[in-house]
TrEMBL record:
Range of residues in the leader sequence: none
GO molecular function, one term: oxidoreductase activity
Gene3D superfamilies: 3.10.20.30, Nucleotide-binding domain of ferredoxin-NADP reductase (FNR) module, Translation factors
Name recorded for this polypeptide: Putative ferredoxin NAD(+) reductase
Domain FAD-binding FR-type: 101-197
InterPro entries per UniProt: 2Fe-2S_ferredoxin-like_sf, 2Fe-2S_ferredoxin-type, 2Fe2S_fd_BS, Beta-grasp_dom_sf, Cbr1-like_FAD-bd_dom, FAD-bd_FR_type, FNR_nucleotide-bd, MRET
Organism: Bradyrhizobium oligotrophicum S58
Domain 2Fe-2S ferredoxin-type: 3-93
Stored PROSITE patterns: 2FE2S_FER_1 (PS00197), 2FE2S_FER_2 (PS51085), FAD_FR (PS51384)
Alphabetical list of SUPFAM superfamilies matching this protein: 2Fe-2S ferredoxin-like, Ferredoxin reductase-like, C-terminal NADP-linked domain, Riboflavin synthase domain-like
Amino acid sequence: MTRQLRIEPDGVAIDAVAHDTILQAARRGGVVLAYECGWGSCGACKVTLVEGQVELMYPGAPAVNPRDARRNRILACQSRAISDVTIARGPGEWSAPTPRCVEQQAILRGIADLAPEIRQFSFETAEPIDFRPGQYAILHLGDGLRRCYSMCNLPGTNILQFIAKRYEGGRGSNTLAALALDAGITIEAPFGACTLRRQPGRKVFVAGGTGVAPILAMLREAADAGLDFGAPVDVIYGARAPADLAAGDMLEAAIARVAQARYLPVVEAAPSDWPHASGFVTDAIRTTIPDPAAAEFYVAGPPVMVNAVKSLLRGADVPITQVHYDAFG
């Protein structure tokens, strides 16, 4: 069954299949709505429901609030059309070119242990899925279970690689960890706007835990493209302990191929012989970036870490246009 999705002020009409969210249907139709997280946390994808009815897939989404309901504002990433629907998109959509979102079956072809409870998963799709380094996919793990993971590899092949941690009691992470080689799942991609802006200038990449995946992909992009930003490039990677710096070797290999780039690992529980910084990534920013407002930041990791970095940068008067982040959790 399909519903007609009409998008104003463009006047574009799209056939939305029953399981598509408003965001998915728009992207399949070539219309790029504003969005960031894709799971109802940031609120960037809110649009006005002009006509028709929708169902909210995730009523507990952090960005849902009563004020929006009174104004007919809905989350495009969590709303499905249950009748023909007309929406009005607001200003501020991300206008950079982005690949069209697709959905494909994928086969798990490789699993590599990177750190305690952290693995790299390699999935093969029938056709290459185009994406921009820094973007992420939604993995459909069965029984309505959907989780977001960033690609850590580069586009151009039919392989998608993800770095994921298994959490005690985590339904999604345990389901992913339990997959056997050659198991099949559905992958939907790409999502996300935390992608590399190639203009010259100082860059600071900040990763926490498995948030290293999109940071690694962007640095691989810079390395493969031979980009020279004409300024220092600092890569801060934080974790609980040295053993938890899951992709440190891969990150260092990419950094070594980027002009003026340096690697700054930081751990909370530093042993006595640890030769690098200890503490949190925010401590590393304070001690190594003397003028944050002169840099562009890329941040990925646990929401609590991302929020702490954003708060620090806001206090340092870093313009929001210079802060690109990924915090879908």
